[in-house]
């Protein structure tokens, strides 16, 4: 009987280990397609494959989010100050915020969202949405970026999106490095340490 318990326990352990390994390997191989181009807060095109010199901290939001999105943006704004003090923000790393609601979050709305957090419109923190003329196509592009990072979201029809709760650090080639919780659980020190370690 003990042998059966031992075999069952071992099988469960191996199953859990295999599951964890699968997700770690999957995340480690994720990459944002370099050919994706979206529109930033100024109405200019932003291409993910153009600049291969900087890390990116990628955040997904929608501006009408009542809690976790603005909390994350605020914490990232504070992280930005720490990275500026270290002399790496804008030089070695940029922030990329992508709306999951491009129909409503126009460049003008995103610019207002930025201003609400006192974020400088200097090109080092870009806010991305879709082009009104190609909104369905660009919505699909946003979905591809989200899918590449395993970020999931859905509009149940009331305008209050259900979505994953992670931000993502990617390297100069848009390849996944690490993810951090959104909202109150976003730990600035953890994100700062991971970024600085990667820049060594």
Features:
single chain, 200 residues, alpha/beta, Glutaredoxin, 2 domains, 5-stranded mixed β-sheet, two-stranded antiparallel sheet, 5 helices, 40% helix
Rg calc: 19 Å
Low-confidence stretches: 8-28
Question: If helices are DSSP runs of H or I spanning 4 or more residues, what is the number of helices?
Answer: 5
Topology order in helix (H) and strand (E) letters: HEEEHEHEHEEEEH
CATH topology of the largest domain: Glutaredoxin
Q: In the CATH hierarchy, what is the architecture of the largest domain at level 2?
A: 3-Layer(aba) Sandwich
Task: Bin the strand percentage.
Answer: 15-25%
Keywords: Copper, Disulfide bond, Metal-binding
Protein name: Electron transport protein SCO1/SenC
GO molecular function: metal ion binding
Pfam family, one: SCO1-SenC
Question: What is the structure about, briefly put?
Answer:
The chain is α/β, with parallel strands linked by helices and 200 residues long. It is built from five helices and nine strands, in the order αβββαβαβαββββα.
Please describe what this structure looks like.
- With 200 residues, this protein is α/β, with parallel strands linked by helices.
- It has 2 domains: 1-30; 33-199, Glutaredoxin (3-Layer(aba) Sandwich).
- The protein has helices spanning 2-28, 68-85, 107-116, 135-148, 188-198; strands spanning 37-39, 45-47, 55-61, 93-99, 125-128, 153-154, 162-163, 166-170, 176-181.
- Strands 5-4-3-8-9 form a 5-stranded mixed sheet.
- The longest helix has 27 residues, at 2-28.
- It starts with a helix and ends with a helix.
């Amino acid at each position: 009987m003990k042998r059966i318990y031992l075999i069952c326990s071992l099988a469960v352990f191996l199953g859990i280990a295999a599951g964890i390994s699968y997700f770690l390997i999957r995340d480690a191989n994720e990459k944002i397609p370099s050919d994706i181009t979206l529109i930033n807060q100024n109405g200019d095109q932003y291409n993910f494959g153009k600049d291969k010199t900087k890390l990116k901290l990628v955040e997904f939001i929608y501006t009408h989010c009542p809690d976790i999105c603005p909390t994350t943006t605020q914490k990232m704004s504070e992280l930005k100050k720490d990275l500026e003090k270290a002399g790496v923000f804008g030089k070695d790393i940029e922030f990329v915020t992508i709306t999951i609601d491009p129909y409503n979050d126009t460049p003008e709305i995103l610019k207002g969202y930025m201003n609400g957090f006192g974020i400088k419109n200097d090109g080092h923190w870009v806010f991305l949405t879709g082009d009104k003329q190609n909104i369905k196509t660009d919505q699909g592009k946003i979905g591809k970026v989200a899918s590449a990072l395993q970020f999931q979201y859905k509009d149940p029809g009331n305008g209050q999106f259900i979505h994953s709760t992670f931000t993502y650090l990617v390297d100069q080639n848009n390849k996944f490095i690490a993810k951090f919780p959104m909202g109150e659980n976003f730990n600035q020190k953890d994100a700062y340490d991971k970024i600085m370690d990667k820049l060594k």
